Amino acid sequence: MDTVLECVETVVGQGEPQWSVVWLHGLGADGHDFAPIVPELRRAGWPTVRFVFPHAPVRPVTINGGMRMRAWYDIAHVDLANRADEVGVQESIAQAEALIAREVARGVPESRIVLAGFSQGGAVTLALGVRRERPLAGLVALSTYLPAPERAKAECPRDTVKPPVFMAHGLGDPVVPYLAGELSAEVLRECGFAVEWHAYPMMHAVMPQELSDLSDWFEARFRAA
C-alpha cells in the first residue's frame, strides 16, 4: 500500500468502525476544516463511522501568484475548461485511493466507504469516482465540478455498478459557477450514476440545510447496507 497522507480522524459510535468517510477539503484549507461538522451530521442509531480528513500536499498554486498552500492540484486558469492540473488530479486520485486501501486494511470494505469532498476536494472525488471499476458506498461532491468532463465520460467504465452520488451547490457561487455543477451532474447521469442534486441560496460555502439533507442521504446509505 502506498504511503498515506496525514489525516485528522474522528470516530463516532461505539466499537470498531463499520463505515468510513474519507473527506477531501478545499483549496488552501486542511483536514481540520470539515472535522467540526461531524456532530451536525451524526444521528442516533447510526453505525460506528470513522471520518478521515486528510491534509492535501503543500504546492505552489499558479492562480494565487505561485503561493504555496495545501492543494489537491495546481490551478493555472480561472476558466473551468483549463482549471484543473491533470497531473495533480491524477496524483491526488492515487492518494485518495491509498486512503481507501488503508480503510480496507483496517477492516472496512469498499462497499462501506464513502468518498466526499468540497470544491477542489470534490473535483478529485468525482474524477476518481467516475473512473472507478469497483464501486464505493457513495460519493459526496459539494460546491464542485468534474474536471475534463468529456475525457472523464470516455474513461468511465460502462458495465459496472455505480454508487449513489450526493451533489450540492450554491446558487450564487462565485468560485465554481452553479451551471458547472449542474453540467457535471448531467455527465455523471450519462455515465449511469444516480445523482441526488441540491441547490441552496448560498455562495461557495456549506449551510445547515445542506448538512441536514446530507445527513438524510447518509442515513439512507446505512439503512440500505
TrEMBL record:
Which PANTHER family does the protein's record reference?
LYSOPHOSPHOLIPASE-LIKE PROTEIN 1, LYSOPHOSPHOLIPASE-RELATED
User: InterPro entries from the xrefs?
Assistant: AB_hydrolase_fold, LYPA1-2/EST-like, PLipase/COase/thioEstase
UniProt entry keywords in alphabetical sequence: Hydrolase
Keyword Amino-acid biosynthesis in record: no
Please state which protein family the record places this protein in. Belongs to the AB hydrolase superfamily. AB hydrolase 2 family.
Q: Where is the Phospholipase/carboxylesterase/thioesterase domain?
A: 7-217
Hydrolase among the record's keywords? yes
> Which Gene3D superfamilies does UniProt cross-reference here?
alpha/beta hydrolase
Q: In this record, what's one Pfam family?
A: Abhydrolase_2
Instruction: Quote one Gene Ontology molecular function term.
Output: hydrolase activity
The superkingdom of the source organism is Bacteria
Q: Which residues cross the membrane?
A: none
Protein name stated in the entry: Putative esterase
Which organism is the protein's source? Solilutibacter silvestris
